[in-house]
Design brief:
The complex is a heterodimer of chains A (about 375) and B (about 425). Chain A is α+β, with helices and mostly antiparallel strands and about 375 residues long. Chain A contains eight helices and 19 strands. In chain A, the strands form four sheets. Chain A has a six-stranded mixed sheet with strand order 6-7-8-3-9-10, with helices on both faces. A five-stranded mixed β-barrel of chain A has the order 11-12-13-19-14. In chain B, a hairpin with a 2-residue loop joins strand 1 and strand 2. In chain B, about 30% of the residues are buried. Classes of the chains: A alpha+beta (about 375), B mainly alpha (about 425).
């Protein structure tokens, strides 16, 4: 992604509220037109602050935010032309749904007939055409969410910001809305910046995900890379389920290395954040990539002895909790296939994995 | 539960109707609740409801004539007030009899003051005649007509008897007529003479000034409440204490402070003269008139406007204004179209509170109002404590109460009382 094509760009942005603590530390981020970018992170990681700076409700303490090539630090929010969906929807309670949608068009001095037509189109777009005369309080949470979405899109902004818009919905509705939002965003070709703390949401909806922690972007990557190739142990643990074992790098050989775990046993891993033998590391392996069928491993692969502690039946998958190298919370997942093996508690097995599935990260 | 196919009331497990069994199980709880509020209920009943009801009753109650002059009242029924002739001897005899009893019980002066409200001079007439009528013996000293007229010309005036007859009814609308600048006459209700018409004007002035006070409270309180609701908690708490500070100071002290500030030799005038903005011989008259009352009462009632406004504004999430701005609304549009409509319940609640308090305010107009800046409540107080015309005071009070209730009703129709939020 070249800088020339950047539609939204954060350049060395810092933000502090009290002059003592930086909430956002040296943020650099650029996204091209049409991208769906999610800012994901635990609460207090600075993601919402970034969104608010982009919307214009907070000012950057240092650095420049560019929109379509223009610095926008000194442009007030109402002149930025950015659509926004809020966590609690922020539908105006004293206006009907149609009046809510009409509001951004009115302040743009768009004629009445054109306004009505756009409102109708926006309502149809979110399948709420019949609800124009209702008040927000008469709608369910999911319906309010659709209206909020329609209201953010009705004036055809090129950039839409969403601040945890699905937080208040139940699981089923949330999954449905995730799909709706991505569909609309791609159909209309709008650039979207989406803030959430829900990683499933981030993975399923986004073109790219920026994982925030401690005021910095820890990793910025498409969902599959983020999940399969986390660049540091924070990302590895924050995204998806993850097993961590601690140890010291014994030897590095190009694309693979051997790590001596704290209990003395050795395993294969892919060096990511380690550069030399003797460094401490945390190795990270996804539960579904652990193999306990010896036949499927390389003949010379290192294996670990493990004791099954617990078997959890979850329908589509089996989940086992094992004790491995002093870690009692080592999880393995297998698909509930016809030939799947059910391990029973107390059973001793040997586990291993392919070297490139196991990542040696920072300690 | 019994089976669903059975008709009739639902039965509990032991066969008694479910409703009855539920009522029984709730009875203890209800009794307990009642016992908890009983002391307050009793207190309110004894010290508030009963006095108010009895006061309201005074506005129409008029037993005094019939009680003091029972025989006279019977005789007056036979006399035609329109005839233009004095009543006959029988009435004078009955009157003397009544008066002798009344003088004995010393109730004739009270009757005199009562009738004096209707016709001036009655009070002194009763008092002065009393001494001499006492010497008459109703059995032997007749005929009385000429003797009474000798004692006081008033007894030979048809108007005297017409007044007594008009006000002999036990329930009267006379006080209410007086309260709206009319009077009860033998020919029915009539307007008071021009020089006695002050009460309607006073009602009008009270309403007008209360409206002005409410409006100035809205103007002053709105920005303050907005600030309180939007500032960070720590700062707004401090400001809130400043708003509440007056509540910890005596009302009398605050009002007297205004007297010090506003009088012609007061702080404001002295400062203006010293600055040369006002000539020494043209000091501003800003007290003992309507202006003084409005200033002092606006100041005193301001917290009652700020508090409800603040509590409503506090519930308006900042995301509404943010949403409006993100949609392209300027600060002014955002305020006027989004923020202001949502703050109206606060304005409504504050206005009702301030207006109702203002309309019945007494002490502040009494101190800083002079003669032009007093309210109807000051007139009521005057009739209660100085002229002792409690009936008129009660009638004025009743009208005031009715006006407040009427306004309240209108407000409910227009804005809806359930839109009012105090917290």
């Amino acid at each position: 992604m070249s800088n020339d094509a950047a539609f939204v760009e954060f350049q060395r942005v810092q933000k502090s509220y009290d002059g003592e603590i930086l909430v956002v530390k040296d943020l650099n981020l650029s996204l091209p037109k049409g991208e769906f970018l999610t800012m994901l992170g635990p609460s207090g990681s600075g993601k919402t602050t970034c969104l608010m700076m982009l919307a214009g409700f907070e000012t950057a303490t240092h650095g420049e935010i560019m929109l379509d090539g223009r610095p926008i630090n000194n442009i007030p929010p109402h002149k930025r032309g950015i659509g926004m969906v809020f966590q609690n929807y922020a539908l105006f309670p004293h206006m009907t749904v149609a009046e809510n949608l009409s509001f951004p068009l009115e302040v743009r001095k768009i004629g009445k007939s054109e306004r009505e037509e756009k409102v109708k189109r926006a309502l149809d777009m979110v399948q709420m055409g019949a609800f124009g005369s209702r008040r927000p309080a008469q709608l369910s949470g999911g319906q309010q969410q659709r209206i909020a979405l329609a209201r953010a899109l009705v004036f055809e902004p090129e950039l839409v910001l969403m601040d945890e818009p699905l937080g208040a919905l139940d699981k089923q509705l949330r999954e449905h809305m995730q799909f709706e939002i991505t569909r609309l965003a791609h159909e209309l070709g709008i650039t979207t910046v989406y803030v959430t703390h829900d990683q499933t949401e981030a993975l399923t909806m986004s073109d790219r995900v920026a994982v925030f922690d401690d005021g910095r972007i820890q990793q910025l990557a498409p969902p599959d890379l983020l999940y399969e190739e986390p660049e540091n142990s924070f990302v590895a643990q924050f995204i998806g389920e993850n097993n961590t074992l601690e140890g010291v790098v014994k030897s590095i050989d190009g694309d693979s290395c051997v790590v001596t775990l704290d209990d003395g046993s050795e395993i294969d891993a892919k060096p990511v954040n380690v550069s030399a033998a003797g460094e401490r590391t945390k190795v990270s392996i996804r539960p579904e990539r652990v193999e306990f069928n010896k036949d499927r491993l390389h003949a010379d692969a290192h294996t670990l002895k493990a004791t099954v502690k617990e078997f959890i039946y979850m329908g589509d998958v089996f989940r086992f909790r094992l004790s491995v190298a002093g870690n009692d919370d080592f999880i393995i997942k297998t698909r509930n296939a016809p030939d799947a093996v059910r391990l029973s508690p107390g059973q001793e097995v040997e586990i291993g994995w392919l070297a490139h599935d196991c990542r040696a990260l920072d300690a | 539960m019994t089976d669903a196919t059975q008709s009739g009331p639902m039965l509990a497990a032991d066969g008694t109707p479910l409703k009855k069994s539920l009522a029984r199980s709730l009875r203890r709880r209800k009794l307990r609740a009642l016992a908890l509020i009983a002391p307050l209920l009793l207190f309110v009943l004894l010290s508030f409801v009963i006095p108010i009801v009895s006061m309201l009753f005074r506005s129409v109650e008029n037993g005094i004539v019939a009680e003091t002059l029972p025989l006279t009242v019977v005789e007056l029924k036979n006399w035609d007030a329109e005839s233009g002739e004095l009543p006959d001897e029988a009435l004078y005899a009955a009157f003397t009899k009544d008066m002798v009893v009344a003088i004995d019980e010393k109730t004739h002066t009270r009757l005199g003051s009562r009738l004096n409200y209707e016709q001036t001079g009655m009070s002194s007439m009763f008092r002065r005649s009393g001494r001499q009528i006492k010497k008459l013996d109703p059995e032997t000293d007749g005929p009385f007509k000429d003797k009474l007229i000798d004692i006081h010309d008033g007894w030979g005036d048809i108007e005297t008897w017409r007044t007594i007859k008009t006000h002999a009814v036990p329930i009267t609308n006379g006080y209410f007529l007086n309260a709206i600048d009319m009077r009860r006459t033998p020919e029915g209700a009539q307007a008071q003479p021009e020089d006695k018409q002050i009460l309607i004007k006073l009602f009008g002035r009270t309403l007008m000034m209360s409206l002005i006070i409410t409006a100035s409270c809205i103007l002053l309180a709105y920005p303050v409440s907005y600030l309180l609701a939007t500032l960070p908690m720590r700062v707004s708490n401090l400001l809130m204490i400043l708003v509440l500070l007056p509540f910890w100071t005596s009302l009398l002290v605050r009002t007297s402070a205004w007297k010090v500030m506003l009088q012609q030799q007061g702080v404001i005038n002295e400062t203006l003269v010293w600055l040369g903005l006002v000539a020494d011989d043209a000091r501003l008259v800003i007290i003992n008139n309507q202006f003084g009352t409005i200033i002092a009462m606006t100041h005193i009632l301001l917290p009652f406007m700020i508090l409800p406004m603040y509590s409503v504004m506090q519930t308006i999430p900042p995301s509404y204004t943010r949403a409006a701005k993100s949609m392209g609304a300027t600060n002014w549009t955002t305020f006027w179209r989004i923020y202001f409509p949502q703050s109206i319940p606060g304005i409504g609640a504050g206005s009702i509170l301030v207006f109702i308090l203002a309309i019945g305010y007494y002490i502040t107009p009494e101190i800083v109002g002079g003669t032009k800046g007093v309210f109807i409540s000051n007139r009521i107080a005057y009739h209660i404590s100085s002229s002792l015309n409690w009936g008129l005071a009660a009638a004025l009070g009743t009208i005031l109460l009715a006006v407040v209730l009427l306004l309240y009703w209108c407000y409910d129709k227009i804005v809806g009382i359930d839109n009012v939020k105090l917290g």
